[in-house]
Design goal:
This protein is mostly helical. It has one domain: Orthogonal Bundle (Farnesyl Diphosphate Synthase). Strands 1-2 form a two-stranded antiparallel ribbon. The radius of gyration is 18 Å and the shape is globular.
Length: 291
């Protein structure tokens, strides 16, 4: 995949995010500043790019899915703000800069995360150029994947059940905590484009495998990476006493599993009639990333 392909998406996503989170001339603009600080603080934009690509390969036209893409990135960023809080992973840096709570204080960081989550649904609901039923279904998927049966549920497992974690429970947690928003990206993109149930199921199958592979690589990088490359503390899982796939299986086995899940994701793309080259190349890139 050409680098300018990724950048062309990122420029549009980031310009729209900047517009959504621009100051409003109110006493509470500080919370917008804190939210914008975290949203604009780098990031690969993998989830919104996947949403836009699945929209495209399922026949979607124009830029109608960008509000949902931005909403998804806002929810992802809110989860990172809260994840970094002292009551969660207690990380002082994110993407090479002080975490939101270090830059703005814990109270405002908590509110910034809440604000991004809520504003995300307002943004998605403003998708007026697509059929109403598709937009409603997209919002339902977004809420489910971000909520108790998705990312939040995964966070609960991560924080409350560490002592009971084996590899099966761990992979289930990865499916929810990391995989849910990636599943949202793929299935919302397909849904907004009007894809049939078979293609939406194939998109979900792709995303489930991609999400687990993504977290396995994250575990490896947490054990082997460096701060300069990752932009966040290394070894935080070990510091916090968390069991990870690396701790249970070792690095080599985790790499093998990540490759297997990636291959499963690529196989799921065979069901799509549209041009999947960009998604395939992006998926392969995620497997060998160092950040």
């Amino acid at each position: 995949m050409e680098e300018n392909f990724i950048e062309s998406y990122k420029v549009k996503i980031e310009n729209r995010l900047k517009m959504i989170l621009s100051p409003r001339g109110r006493m509470y603009d500080k919370v917008l500043e804190a939210g914008s600080y975290s949203v604009s603080n780098g990031g690969k934009r993998i989830r919104p790019i996947l949403l836009l690509e699945f929209y495209k390969i399922c026949g979607g036209e124009d830029d109608c899915a960008y509000n949902f893409a931005c909403a998804l990135e806002m929810i992802h960023t809110y989860s990172l703000i809260h994840d970094d809080l002292p009551s969660m992973d207690n990380d002082d840096f994110r993407r090479g800069k002080p975490s939101c709570h270090k830059a703005f204080g814990e109270g405002l960081a908590l509110l910034a995360g809440d604000g991004l989550l809520t504003e995300a649904f307002a943004t998605a609901s403003k998708t007026l150029s697509l059929p109403f039923d598709r937009v409603c279904k997209g919002i339902e998927i977004l809420a489910t994947c971000a909520g108790i049966d998705g990312m939040v549920g995964g966070q609960v497992i991560d924080t409350e059940y560490q002592e009971e974690t084996d590899i099966n429970n761990l992979l289930y947690m990865y499916e929810l905590k990391t995989g849910a928003l990636i599943r949202a990206a793929a299935t919302i993109g397909a849904t907004l484009a009007g894809a049939d149930e078979n293609l939406i199921a194939a998109a979900d199958k792709y995303a489930l495998s991609t999400g687990i592979a993504f977290q396995l690589i994250d575990d490896i990088l947490d054990a082997t990476g460096d701060f300069a490359t990752l932009g966040k503390p290394i070894g935080s899982d070990q510091k916090n006493g968390k069991k990870t796939a690396v701790a249970i299986l070792g690095i080599d086995k985790c790499r093998e599993m990540a490759k297997e899940y990636t291959n499963n994701a690529l196989a799921a793309l065979d069901e799509f009639p549209g041009d999947t080259e960009n998604i395939r190349n992006l998926t392969k890139m995620l497997l060998v990333r160092n950040y």
